[in-house]
Write a structure and sequence with these properties.
Rossmann fold, alpha/beta, binds 6-O-phosphono-beta-D-fructofuranose, single chain
Length: 490
């Protein structure tokens, strides 16, 4: 944990760090297990921190007591921000996920620029700010997360809040030509400049942001060099940096060795004897390139028919955002394409694609990571993609091959070990599958070791510490540039 960090930490994010489920006896609380929760929980517990967010439901009966119970178990305070059905529709599904999400993933044609969404987005950001203002003091460090809450700092400044406020964008920041399409581009950019530190996943995102700031706002200057720069507009100064988010490497590395996981992994391969498993795991999302990936796999079977019966794609799709029409359409299209490929290529005793549409238990997830010979992670654009890092951390035999999209944030750190592909180029992806299939043991080990080392070193605790150091430290000497430039020469 960060020793220099002495203030109370207040986390503001769209969701609280748990999921509520209605049961006959009241609320069931499922504690968040993602990297963000793992990394922040000890800091919040030790410093007496606070987490403000939406409890993930519009139902309000007994919600306060459910949140209190979650807070008692976790050992730090939580305050719920309640949203009605209509607000969830317009602020979360509407502005956040039908405007910002597709635009920031370079998919402007998927955007629904409905002006009423913007009004509600601002109103809900203001609600988050009001609750934050009531529950914090000037001594607190306020850390706001992600694209749902880009205008919170501006609202807090209107309320006269002087605390240091940081922001971290978990998704990509788009290039200028795409950002300019946003009808509220200047409002959002100005609002972001009210933060004291803006953190991005990669150098590419930070570069895009600075280009947009220069184009839309007069007299923007940057100074310094390395991972964190200073950006000034007249007398106002803020910091902009890149901090690639990560996972709890040791937790994956240790859990992957457990007997339960080993047994489960054995059963998976027992059912697929002498067959290499290619693994794809994604939330249901059009940014993940699931359709393109299945087409690339079909192309592999057509071009390299000797791989039939030797290779199976296990594609796991975790249900997500099903109230948004685009997501529903995507699900239908995936179902159709999987059955088309299976209908064409299945032979007695061998089905080319095993398609799982549900969330996996932790044990199953780790077992698939351990069993898969190849991970095929080919998003069209992704802030980071933690599945890529989890696969490496769980690959204790160091014999797996990672095929990774050049548009995933993770490529900056994993480029020395992964086979890098353009996910739109299905022939390149299919050649990469063949390369992975025929790779020697030595090469696999060499590549995987490099990736495991970097995920181990730049883990989730390193991420929290470096962000908070940059947010609080007086000087920026500790932030030399990180190796980041991605090579497109192949
Ligand atoms: O990647 C951005 C993100 O908000 C993650 O933090 C989250 O796990 C995922 O998208 C899904 O988010 P939600 O279910 O809240 O829309």
């Amino acid at each position: 944990m960060n020793k220099k960090f002495v203030k109370r930490l207040v986390i503001i994010s769209n969701r609280l760090p748990f999921v509520l489920e209605r049961s006959s006896s009241g609320w069931k609380i499922h504690h968040g297990s993602g990297g963000l929760v793992t990394a922040l929980a000890p800091v919040l517990r030790n410093r007496g921190g606070l987490w403000i967010g939406w409890p993930g439901t519009h139902e309000i009966a007994d919600i306060d007591s459910a949140v209190d119970q979650a807070a008692r178990t976790e050992g730090y305070s939580m305050i719920p921000v309640q949203l009605s059905k209509d607000e969830i529709r317009n602020y979360y599904e509407g502005f956040s996920n039908e405007v910002v999400w597709p635009l920031f993933h370079d998919l402007q044609s998927y955007c629904n620029f409905d002006p009423s969404y913007w009004e509600l987005y601002k109103a809900i950001n203001k609600r988050f700010a009001n609750i934050t203002a009531k529950n914090t003091t000037a001594e607190d460090y306020i850390w706001v997360h992600d694209y749902h809450l880009m205008t919170v700092a501006q609202e807090l400044r209107y309320l006269g809040i002087k605390s240091k406020i940081g922001f971290y964008l978990h998704i990509p920041f788009p290039p200028l030509d795409i950002f300019l399409k946003l009808p509220w581009r200047s409002e959002i950019l100005r609002a972001l400049l009210d933060y004291d530190l803006i953190g991005f996943q990669t150098l590419r995102d930070r570069r895009n942001f600075i280009q947009c700031a220069r184009a839309l706002i007069k007299n923007v200057r940057t100074s310094g060099k390395g991972q964190v720069l200073t950006l000034s507009i007249g007398k106002r100064e803020l910091r902009v940096g890149y901090f690639p988010i990560s996972i709890d490497y040791e937790e994956f590395n240790i859990a992957a060795r457990s007997k339960d996981v080993a047994d489960e992994a054995w059963y998976i391969h027992e059912d697929l004897p002498h067959i290499q498993i290619i693994l794809g795991i994604d939330r249901l999302d059009y940014t993940k390139g699931i359709l393109q990936r299945i087409k690339a796999f079909r192309n592999t079977l057509e071009r390299y028919p000797e791989l039939c019966r030797k290779m199976t794609l296990v594609q796991v799709v975790v249900p997500s955002r099903r109230n948004i029409p685009m997501y529903n359409d995507l699900k239908i299209e995936i179902d159709r394409l999987v059955s088309e490929v299976n209908g064409t290529f299945t032979m007695s005793g061998w089905v080319p694609i095993h398609y799982i549409y549900r969330a996996l238990s932790r044990r199953e997830l780790l077992a698939y990571y351990r069993t898969a010979e190849i991970a095929l992670i080919t998003p069209l654009k992704d802030g980071m993609n933690l599945v890529a890092k989890e696969f490496c951390a769980a690959n204790i035999e160091e014999d797996g091959v990672l095929i990774l999209s050049e548009f995933a944030g993770a490529v900056a750190q994993l480029q020395r070990g992964a086979i890098i592909v353009n996910p739109h180029d299905i022939e390149e992806v299919s050649a990469a599958i063949y390369q992975a299939y025929s790779m020697s043991k030595e090469e696999k080990r060499d590549r995987m070791r490099k990736m495991r080392q970097i995920v181990k070193r730049q883990n989730i605790f390193w991420w929290v510490n470096s962000y908070l150091d940059a947010g609080i430290a007086g000087n920026l000497d500790n932030f030399p540039p990180m190796e980041e430039h991605i090579s497109f020469h192949r």
